[in-house]
Amino acid sequence: MSFMLSKNKIKFIKSLDNKKSRDESGQFIIEGNKIVSEFINAGWNINLLVAQPRWTETFPERALQNIEEIIDVENNELRKISLLKTPHNVLAIVNKPEFLINWNEILNNLTLVLETIQDPGNLGTIIRTAAWFGINNIICSPDSVDVFNQKVIQASMGAILRVKVHYTNLIDFMNRISENNFPVYGASLDGMPIYNYDLSANGIILLGNESSGISPSLKKYITQKIKIPCFSDTTEGIDSLNVSMAAAIICSEFRRKTRGYSK
Amino acid sequence: MSFMLSKNKIKFIKSLDNKKSRDESGQFIIEGNKIVSEFINAGWNINLLVAQPRWTETFPERALQNIEEIIDVENNELRKISLLKTPHNVLAIVNKPEFLINWNEILNNLTLVLETIQDPGNLGTIIRTAAWFGINNIICSPDSVDVFNQKVIQASMGAILRVKVHYTNLIDFMNRISENNFPVYGASLDGMPIYNYDLSANGIILLGNESSGISPSLKKYITQKIKIPCFSDTTEGIDSLNVSMAAAIICSEFRRKTRGYSK
Hints:
2 copies of one chain form a homodimer. By secondary structure, the first copy, chain A, is an alpha/beta fold.
C-alpha cells in the first residue's frame, strides 16, 4: 500500500481521458463507489486503486487481492485526478479486456450492431439496456465512440462487466451473418411497425447513426425492416426517437414475443 | 437589427445558465440550428436571436417577425456566450411558457408523472419520447431538474415545443387523480410484468427517482404496479434499467396495446 500520488502518476491517470492513451497503454479508468465495487467483487484485475482509506477498508482482505497497487488519498487529491466534474471517492485503473467474437454465441442470441454511434451517453445506456435484456454482445463500427470513454462507462452503470462490446468492420461482420442466413432487423423509418412482426428469438438488431441512420452499404443486409410507430397527432418538433430509446423498445419487443409473454 | 453584443448582454445571457436567473427573468436559452429553427417556424416569440448573418438570411422575412432583437455575430463571438462546449452557430433567448394543468386533457390521455428526476439528459430524453408517443403532459415534482436547463433542452431535441412540462406538488396532484378513480401505473421492482397487463388507453405512468425509486408517500397512489422483466441470466453488474429507458418501453407497451396492435 502506498501513500503517494506522484506527478507522473497524476499525468498518466489524466492522460487516460484520451482514447489514444487508452489504446497505447491498454488501460482505462473507472470512477465511483458503485462501479469500482462491482469490478472488485467480480474479481477483475485492478492495476491501481486510488481511494480514501475508509472506502478501501470496507472490503475484506481477499476481495483486494486482485489489486496491484492501492494509493490512499483524501478527497481533495481525488479532485486533482478525476475526469468528472464532481469527483467520486474512488477511482481505479484497469486493463482493457480483449474479446474475440464468439460466432456460436452470436448465432444463438440477439446481438446489437451499432453503426457510427457518436454519443457516449447513448452507447452507455444501450450497454445497460442490453445487459437487462440478456444480450451479451454489441458490435460497433470502428468509428463509433470508444466504450472506455468515461462517459460511456458512467452511463453503462457497471454493465460493461456483462456485455462484450466489439469494434469491427461491419461489412465483414454482416457478410458472415448473411452467409449464415441469420435474420437482420434494421430500424428504418420506412419499416413495418415492430408490433406486428413475428420476431425471431435470435438475430441481429441493426441501429444507425444518431443523425444519418443506417448507411446504404449496410441497409442491403437488412432482412426485416422494422420501425417504432409514432403516435403523435402532429410531427411538429418531433424528429425521431433517440437511438437508445429505440434500442430499449426493440429489445423489449423481442423478449416479450419470444420468451413466453403472449398478450 | 443590431450588431453589438454588449458586455451587459453577454452577462445576462451567461446568467441564464442558472435556474435562479431563469426564474427571475422568465427567460431561457435555446442553442443550435435545429431547435432554434423549430421555435422560429412554430411562431414562438423570440426576445433575442444571436446568429451569424448567413444563418438568419435563410429564413423568409415573415418568419422573423416574431423576433424582437437580432444580433449579428461571427462564430468566435458565439463562443463567448454559448453554454455548450462546442457552440452552435445560433443562440436565442425566449420566454418561459406558463402552462396550467388542463384536467380534461389529463383525464383523456396518458400522462407521465416524474418524482425527483435528477439527470437533465434523462428528463430531456423522456420529453422527446413523450412527444413521439403522443403524450402531451409531464408532471414533475418541484425538486426535479429544471426543464429549461440547457442539457434538458438539448436532449429533448425540440420536443419541449410539443410536451407541456409542469412542476407541482405531486401529493396534491395524485389526490385529485385518485378522486377521479383514474388508473395510476407505477414502475416498481415488485410489480407484475407489464407485458401481461390489460393496460388502459388513458392513465398516469408514475416513475421514481434514478436511485431511490418512488417514495412511500406516492407509492400508495399506485393502482397497478408494473415492471419490465429482466432477461439476464445473472444479476451481476445489472442494477436496473435507466429511468428514461423504462419510460420508453412503458409508453410503447401502452400504445401497442390500446391503439390497435394486437400481436
